[in-house]
Write a structure and sequence with these properties.
The chain folds into two domains: about 220 residues, Rossmann fold (3-Layer(aba) Sandwich), CATH 3.40.50; about 45 residues. It contains eight helices and twelve strands. A seven-stranded mixed sheet has the order 7-6-5-8-9-11-10. Strands 1-2-12 form a three-stranded mixed sheet, with no helix packed on it. Strands 3-4 form a two-stranded antiparallel ribbon. Strand 8, helix 7 and strand 9 form a beta-alpha-beta unit. Helix 7 runs parallel beside helix 8. The longest helix is centred in the middle third of the chain and has 18 residues.
Length: about 270
């Protein structure tokens, strides 16, 4: 690894159990960053956003910039979010913490964060719904399943799915992929690649049956595995039906300076030799 120009260059070695070159995206037009400038933003296909009847957002925390941008780009889409750790109360507590940080540091981002509770109450109304449930493989502890989530959407919806569930993605993706014909795209933050490499590789191959990998970014807060791979990659997939023929490999750099940004500002991003 070499650190230059605020990047850490990451390159696979021949003995590594997974090769970065296997994750080079295909060429894809109309990509755009949706969501915040740093954590919470994803590079996705605008075609998939606009073709969707609904956004299914699994994992929310106190950052719904992706969901807000999605609504701006597609005003007709229903938005259903799932996160059992978030509520008006937690948003209020978060707002107080951000206000305290602003009073100490006087940085605008903390002042914006101080209005999170108000923003929560204003945003999640009408057809923008926050379900205080986790998405899980069963209904244990008042969880919801993938089937539950789709059944709550308008019948026959084409759905864009965003997933950031802190490692639970491996428990739900098989159920989700059974509905591939109803999914326009997937934007997924994978976790714990250092200890879950085999499940990760297995589910990637399953996703590629119906989707092309169109963007790859490494969360710079997640660090690297011992085998020269991002521990927390963010990967976007687009349903193959959006391509008239098999696409060529992308010639973009990763990260793409016109689209990507480090999840944590002030830390070097990972430059990936895909």
């Amino acid at each position: 690894m070499n650190t230059t120009n605020s990047y850490v260059t990451v390159k696979s070695e021949a003995r590594d159990p997974v090769q970065l070159s296997d994750f080079r995206p295909v060429a894809c037009d109309h990509l755009a960053r949706v969501g915040g400038a740093n954590d919470g933003g994803y590079v996705v296909s605008l075609d998939a956003v606009r073709a969707a009847d609904a956004l299914l957002s699994l994992g929310l925390s106190h950052n719904w910039t992706f969901e807000r941008d999605f609504r701006r780009l597609n005003s007709r889409a229903v938005i259903h979010c799932y996160d059992h750790t978030v509520s008006a109360l937690t948003a209020f507590e978060y707002s107080l913490g951000q206000l305290g940080r602003f009073l100490v540091r006087f940085q605008p981002r903390y002042l914006r964060g101080a209005f999170t509770c108000l923003d929560y109450l204003l945003f999640f109304r009408g057809d923008k719904v926050h379900f205080r449930q986790r998405i899980w493989r069963d209904r244990e502890d008042d969880s919801a399943t993938i089937d539950d989530a789709f059944d709550r959407l308008p019948n026959g919806s084409q759905v864009f799915v965003k997933i950031d569930v802190e490692g639970s993605e491996y428990r739900i993706l098989d159920d989700l992929l059974r509905r591939s014909q109803n999914i326009t795209a997937l934007a997924i933050e994978f976790h714990d690649i250092d200890i879950l490499l085999d499940p990760f590789k297995s589910v990637i191959e399953k996703i590629k049956h119906d989707f092309y990998l169109v963007h790859f970014h490494a969360n710079n807060q997640g660090g690297l595995t011992p085998f020269h791979f991002p521990r927390t990659p963010e990967i976007t997939f687009l349903n193959k039906r959006f391509f008239p023929s098999a696409p060529a490999p992308s010639t973009r750099a990763y990260p793409d300076p016109g689209l990507d940004a480090p999840n944590r500002a002030g830390m070097p991003d990972f430059h990936l030799e895909l």
